[in-house]
Write a structure and sequence with these properties.
single chain, 201 residues, alpha+beta, Jelly Rolls, 2 domains, four-stranded antiparallel beta sheet, 3 helices, 10 strands, elongated
Length: 201
């Protein structure tokens, strides 16, 4: 996820939130320069390749990774881990999780691969064609619904006798067909009903 919800420090975006590590489980982070590893409710032991000093991260504290070399994060007790990154850096990191027995625990975070300019242009063309096709399909469906409504109104108008048509004012709309007369009546009714109400009152 890529959400600007991290509060401290304020210029961070969430890379992974709420990763649960059992006691003895761990994470392997590669290409993780400037990632921030935070502990919640447990203590983490962090080892950076090439750095002889190990880092202990207690609950409520964090550690900023300073190298692209592999970094190992172990849970000395059950812990929840949040990983965040500064807003301005590109996503190059990979995070893989291991359970206490060395088996994968299902955690795998890697940046999405994007195609080159040709791939992006092709994808944009496909999206444009899809949108134009969807717009045309919506227009056809609306036209079909309108035609069905007109036919329905025409059938209802054809069932009325002459006196009823005169009483409801349908006879004043002369047209080529009963459907056209019904359509004109519908528009007249929609737009002039308030004035007709005043006449009745």
């Amino acid at each position: 996820m890529d959400r600007r919800t991290w509060k401290e420090p304020v210029d961070e975006r969430i890379v992974a939130d709420g990763i649960f590590l059992e006691h003895g489980a761990g994470l392997r982070i590669t290409q993780g320069t400037r990632l921030l590893v935070s502990a919640h409710g447990g203590t983490l032991w962090i080892t950076e390749e090439g750095n002889p000093a190990d880092i202990l991260v207690k609950p409520g504290t964090w550690h900023r990774i300073a190298t692209d070399a592999p970094v190992l994060v172990y849970a000395l007790e059950a812990a929840s881990v949040t990983i965040s990154a500064p807003l301005g850096i590109p996503a190059r990191w990979t995070v893989d999780g291991k359970g206490p027995g060395g088996r994968s625990n299902g955690v795998h975070i890697a940046p999405r691969k994007r195609g080159g300019r040709t791939g992006r242009d092709l994808w944009a063309w496909v999206l444009r064609r899809y949108r134009s096709g969807a717009h045309a399909a919506r227009g056809l469906r609306q036209s079909a619904r309108d035609a069905e409504l007109r036919e329905h109104v025409a059938r209802l108008a054809a069932q009325l006798d002459a006196r009823t048509r005169r009483d409801i004012g349908l006879e004043q709309f002369d047209g080529a067909s009963a459907a056209e007369r019904a359509e004109r009546y519908r528009w007249h009714h929609d737009f002039s009903w308030p004035s007709r109400e005043k006449t009745f009152i």
